[in-house]
Design goal:
Shape: globular
CATH superfamily of one domain: P-loop containing nucleotide triphosphate hydrolases
Largest sheet: 6 strands, mixed
CATH class of one domain: Alpha Beta
Bound molecules: adenosine-5'-triphosphate, magnesium ion
Structural class: alpha/beta
Strand order of the largest sheet: 6-7-8-3-9-10
Helix content: 25-40%
Order of helices and strands: EEEHEEHEHHHHEHEHEEH
Radius of gyration: 19 Å
Length: 271
Amino acid sequence: MNNYAVEFKDVCKRFPLPNGDTLEACKSISITLEKGKSLGIVGESGSGKTTLVRMLMKMLPISEGEIYVDGVEIQHMNREQTRAYRQKIQMVFQDPMAAFNPRMKVKDIICEPLYNFGLLPKGREEQIAGDYLEMVDLPREFMHRYPHEMSGGQRQRVAIARAIVLEPEILVFDEATSALDVSVQDSIAYLLARLQKKCNLTYLFIAHDIAFIRTMCHKVVVMYKGAIVEELDAFHLSDAQHPYTKVLLSSIFEIGQEHNPLSMDTVAGYK
Ligand SMILES: Nc1ncnc2c1ncn2[C@@H]1O[C@H](COP(=O)(O)OP(=O)(O)OP(=O)(O)O)[C@@H](O)[C@H]1O
Ligand SMILES: [Mg+2]
């Protein structure tokens, strides 16, 4: 039996509105994602992307349908299962500055998840922080800095170090690289591709930047008004049929980037 890393099965999310109406933010979403692969979720603002991943993160209850992770349905987990699940899946947000405590040093920011799970061996904090900083290509000395003493790209690397310190199997990025300039975005893309290969990580990326998605993902789903209107192999984005996807893609194909030079298929053996 093939247990997908993540499987959304007819997932719906309805929000009650103050006027008594109901907003259907996600409509019968079905997606499968294999272990060690990356899914890109694109779509216009308000199409339901964040709502979908918030259900996956167990930050929002599911209205209808099921989400399975490694074959286990996530909505009805007991406390112990939920705790293990929170270790298994981590999220990186758009603005790490907002997510970090400004009074905490980088070493404490990176080790906090371990501390919260009672997994931080006494006296090992600096060793662990240093090792994870190296993993995201930052100098070990950065452990003594505060968030405001780093650039946006460096902070995003610290956010990634913090997200992987619990050795999760799945990482979710919600617009995590949108605010970074293209060269920083590229270097983070390479870093994530390397980590994925090394640790067989499964990624979900929400991004407005279709070029970034194409660089990073094996599969892309396009959301429109709460529904998936198209699912594409990242290698064959130009096969898109839905008018909305065509508009979304026109920007990159117009400038003749049929083959993105940054595509991870240029990193030997990535795909
Ligand atoms: N807690 C909530 N209560 C009511 N409506 C909500 C809630 N959260 C989200 N929504 C609505 O659900 C819809 C989908 O929102 P969502 O945040 O998932 O969109 P998105 O695709 O992530 O958009 P963006 O690209 O702007 O981040 C929107 O219309 C939003 O207003
Ligand atoms: Mg969003």
